[in-house]
């Protein structure tokens, strides 16, 4: 049995060394889910499928845990309690969707970009660096001054006749001015550096946000809000603080190391030899451990993000959580993710701690060694007491600086991975080409819309073709309705018309011009007005929500739009009127009220084309009638595309198109289609039955 264990643990160690990239440490042959006990000792559990299709679980465990011998414990438990220990399934869990490039390590830190950010503040930065260097030089110089004073004091003992004040005056004044200089430069570099740091961080944040806003819809289909917010806040923050620390502490420590080493060499080459032996080993060890820690740091940050995601989702969907009494579940999930995050961070702390403790021990040993050797040299008369004193203080400066560097090292590790993640998205270019800048002048705009041989699949699901060779003409000023059961691609048509996505094949034309040639801002901001099924309002006043369509609209225009949208009456009835706050996503309003404010918003835009994507389907029939009336008023004289599955809303359309699985199966007016007794007729029948049964 011992042999089996040995084989297992060797296997573990070797795998760690050989496959550090894939993070696979420990292959578990048992096909059951491990219990929470085991989970505590492993970082992650993955299922792997080999070529024969056999599934096996992989337990991933960190090198630090391997170091602490926990792996042996796992082996032992595995061998002793093979069955029950591994058989408990994890409870209260669900797959947490993450962004697709989660473990993509290719996002390297973009140094050029960083220099680009620093360039505008180069003078500030240079001044800060110069001040930091000055502090470092002073720190190096001060021990020499101390040595001089110690020598004066030592001489005093030998020669009692000298005037103490006279002797000590000059060196003391010099030392005081050095101290004052050091204080002044310390103030300068901290002040200047915080200016550079804050400005760069703020610019990075702005650029990141702008870059996120620029991305394709496909990007948002796959990204999670929590993760994006994390990049915008935590990552930028981490990067900033690490940047500041590196410049201030790192630069100072480095200069101090170099400077002190030089003075050491001047004071005593013998003693310095001892010091120098230690430095390279620290550097080599540091580089090696650094690469491990950086990876761990990335993992920890990713995990922190995951915890945020769980919380963010639960908080923003509080009604759903309540309705399913899911609070406990959510709390459990959150604490689990938090614990894993804490554990990873603790591992990181363990690694950094081990590294620093080791360095410190090393360096302290070095100081001790110096003391012995220094004492020896002093006893043989090769060094004065002042020299030994200066040497010791210098050696301690080196020791402290190197210790500081090793401490900084943690910050650098964190900053590089945080910065890498920020730059990754700042540098991300949207795949959709939005360079076309065509605009049709308002009075030349007709509003003819045509879908020509359009084939489309969502980028997130390229294999599922939603529309195939889809053709549809919507003449200017007419109302065309698209009906069909859910999931048939109706909203997809809207998304293509708004150019949220580009078609794979074919064209979408407005007034005979391909959508891709238009200026997107004009297209979405001026030409098209979209009112969707679940309009989302911003957490601000009613007035500002309506004004969102046209930021420079006057109050009178806003009110006029609200009147057209049949919203004026109920808004007036609120105590605060148009200044009523609507709550997050408009939660403080009823569905019908929200919908009418959304209509007012679209009306204010005054677009030649109005698109209604099931705009009334979430409403009861009483509010539907009110909203329907509002829509009819708003739609007068415009090209209208109505999407509906409730047929009562489309009876008056000039043309009704029935969509089935992304294809048009019937086309005509209400009367014509009814006579066909096909899909449309079936839809009517179905809805009649539904409304009969609900009566
Ligand atoms: N963002 C998306 N990413 C991938 N697939 C999507 C996306 N949105 C919709 N789909 C899929 O496209 C199909 C058509 O959806 P949709 O146009 O919303 O239907 P409808 O509006 O007719 O109910 C559905 O099968 C749906 O699963
Ligand atoms: Mg839809």
Concise synopsis of the structure shown:
It comes from Samia ricini (Indian eri silkmoth). With 695 residues, this protein is of the alpha/beta class.
Task: Give the tags.
4-stranded antiparallel sheet; 6-stranded mixed sheet; elongated; ABC transporter transmembrane region fold; binds adenosine-5'-diphosphate; P-loop_NTPase; 695 residues; 13 strands; disordered N terminus; membrane; Rossmann fold
Characterize the structure shown.
It is built from 23 helices and 13 strands. It is of the alpha/beta class and 695 residues long. It has 3 domains: 2-86, no CATH class; 118-279 and 364-426, ABC transporter transmembrane region fold; 442-694, Rossmann fold. The strands form 3 sheets. It has a 6-stranded mixed β-sheet with strand order 9-10-11-6-12-13, sandwiched between helices. The protein starts with a helix and ends with a helix. The model is unreliable at 1-37 and 81-91 (pLDDT under 50). Bound molecules: adenosine-5'-diphosphate and magnesium ion. Residues 221, 458, 460-461, 466, 486-492 line the site of adenosine-5'-diphosphate. This is Mitochondrial potassium channel ATP-binding subunit. One of its GO terms (biological process) is potassium ion transport. Residues 449-686 form the ABC transporter domain. The chain crosses the membrane at residues 123-150, 170-190, 273-293.
